[in-house]
Design brief:
238 residues, alpha/beta, Rossmann fold, ten-stranded mixed sheet, 7 helices, 32% helix, 29% strand, binds adenosine-5'-triphosphate, binds magnesium ion
């Protein structure tokens, strides 16, 4: 049986045979403001609170403070999971870079992640986000480098959510074919209803080793919890 980590999005895990398979690399893709970081943090937070897994959140876009502040407005208190979830931001990574001047950005990044994994035995990893990683690592051969990064993550024995961005006008989930390389894709979107209100949706585009359906569901955040319901609107699928 495949071991899985629940997303703790109520109603959605049932659609994924219980959650994300252990040691997979899953892209969490969406346009700006579609709650990518919140869904990713929710994954680490509830796995920690429920004593299922320890998680490492690498935030390349936001500072640790800004991220934990946002999460506390969403009823996720960092104090409750201090010993089970670690947030690492660019400030900390830069410090490491200074000590290891002869190495490339990617080498230092991997060494840092590996040392944190070895010392704290994290089960889950969030990298937020892939476009920023791309800028920092200055990929010369993106397809190949991403292929090796994904393989490296799987071998590390860690289940990864890689947050990625999607251009509102694009129909593609990726820039460098990372959608083919990843084991799964979760897609978040906002859809206008009648030009006034907006509904949030989530969809599992693919998830290896999983019998899932690919429908859109309405995503809601209520009483400190994410949950999905059948789509309320009859908004057109893209
Ligand atoms: N209860 C809430 N508290 C705070 N923000 C909320 C809440 N409910 C919904 N939001 C929305 O969450 C959004 C931010 O979520 P988040 O930072 O996770 O999105 P993101 O997709 O990671 O954004 P970005 O593209 O900036 O990285 C806000 O723009 C706000 O609209
Ligand atoms: Mg974000």
């Amino acid at each position: 049986m495949v071991e899985r980590f629940a997303t703790y999005i109520e109603g959605f895990d049932d659609k994924l045979q219980g959650g994300i398979p252990r040691d997979s690399v899953v892209l969490l893709v969406g346009e700006p403001g579609t709650m990518k970081s919140s869904v990713a943090f929710n994954f680490l937070y509830h796995n920690a609170v429920n004593d299922k897994a320890k998680g490492l959140y690498i935030t390349l876009e936001q500072s640790t403070n800004s991220l934990s502040q946002h999460m506390s407005t969403m009823d996720m208190e960092f104090d409750k999971i201090m010993d089970k979830v670690e947030i690492v931001d660019m400030g900390l990574i830069r410090k490491k870079m200074k000590d290891l001047k002869d190495h490339t950005w990617m080498q230092v990044f991997k060494m840092y992640v590996k040392s944190l994994k070895d010392s704290n035995n994290y089960d889950l990893l969030v990298i937020d986000s892939l476009p920023v990683l791309d800028v920092l690592a200055k990929f010369e051969n993106p397809r190949e480098e991403l292929f090796h990064l994904f393989e490296w993550l799987r071998d590390l024995g860690i289940t990864t959510i890689l947050v990625s961005e999607m251009n509102p006008d694009s129909r593609s989930y990726s820039k460098y074919d990372e959608d083919f390389l990843a084991d799964g894709i979760l897609y978040l979107r906002m859809t206008e209803l009648g030009g006034v209100s907006v509904e949030r949706h989530i969809r599992c585009v693919k998830l290896r080793s999983t019998n899932h359906n690919t429908n859109f569901y309405t995503l809601m955040f209520d009483n400190g919890k994410f949950k999905v319901t059948k789509m309320i609107s009859d908004a057109k699928e893209r």
